[in-house]
Design brief:
Layout (H helix, E strand, L loop, with lengths): L11 H8 L44 H44 L3 H19 L7 H23 L2 E4 L11 E8 L8 E6 L1 E4 L2 E4 L1 E7 L4
Parallel strand pairs: 2-6
Antiparallel strand pairs: 1-4, 3-6, 4-5
Helix pairs in contact: 3-4
Length: about 220
């Protein structure tokens, strides 16, 4: 007879559990099996049921349609990238052109006004160059006042960028001079400005009006 820790006789069920613990029965008569370790689940078993686990399944090879679709997407991405680069370059050129135009507008903002004042300078200069035979103090004071106004006007225009093109004695330059006639001369070489009829003017590096000149040429033999 088997006794428990308290010295009481053991029941048959308890005896059976001690003798055969893996196949012990519950009081209801249902056999209960103990859990086992390292038992593969049905999802981890292979298709043939041999119990082996496939760690790395074989790769799926792409079809011809998949390769064609990937190539079409790559071509479309390249096209979009090239278009983006062109648009960025065009925008940079636009910014540079806009900045250059803005600087040009600031630099030559007074061009139209100065062009209208050029005849005024001509008239001032012609009036001051006329001989003054009178000895009237009032007339002399008037001429002195005109000279002061003329010099002040030239100073203001020069500060705005006006430059005088003085062609007297210079070699004829079609970019700066306008030849109204030619005159035979032995005093200067051929192609040299013999006489300046009207001064020319530039606004910084832009020609406003060419100088009107008479150009020397060789005398006829």
């Amino acid at each position: 007879m088997m006794l428990d820790d308290l010295g009481k006789p053991m029941s048959d069920d308890v005896k059976e559990m001690m003798v055969n613990p893996e196949g012990a029965a519950t009081p209801n008569g249902v056999q209960k099996s103990l859990p086992t370790e390292n038992v593969p689940t049905p999802e981890a078993q292979s298709a043939d049921g041999d119990g082996t686990v496939e760690a790395n399944p074989p790769p799926v090879m792409p079809t011809v349609e998949d390769i064609a679709e990937l190539k079409a997407r790559a071509d479309k991405a390249t096209e979009y990238w090239d278009r983006l680069l062109r648009q960025v370059a065009d925008f940079d050129n636009f910014k540079k052109r806009a900045a250059r135009d803005r600087q040009e507008a600031i630099k030559y903002a007074n061009e139209a006004l100065i062009e209208k004042l050029l005849p005024v300078l001509d008239h001032f200069e012609a009036g001051l160059a006329a001989p003054n035979a009178t000895s009237d103090p009032a007339a002399q004071a008037l001429q002195t006042g005109m000279s002061m106004v003329f010099n002040q006007l030239k100073s203001v225009l020069q500060e705005a960028g006006l430059e005088i093109v003085d062609a007297a004695g210079q070699v004829f330059d079609p970019n700066l001079h306008e030849a109204i006639s030619q005159l035979e001369s032995t005093e200067v070489a051929e192609g040299v400005v013999l006489q300046q009829i009207r001064k020319g003017f530039k606004l910084r590096d832009r020609l406003l009006r060419p100088a009107s000149v008479i150009v020397a040429k060789k005398p006829a033999s």
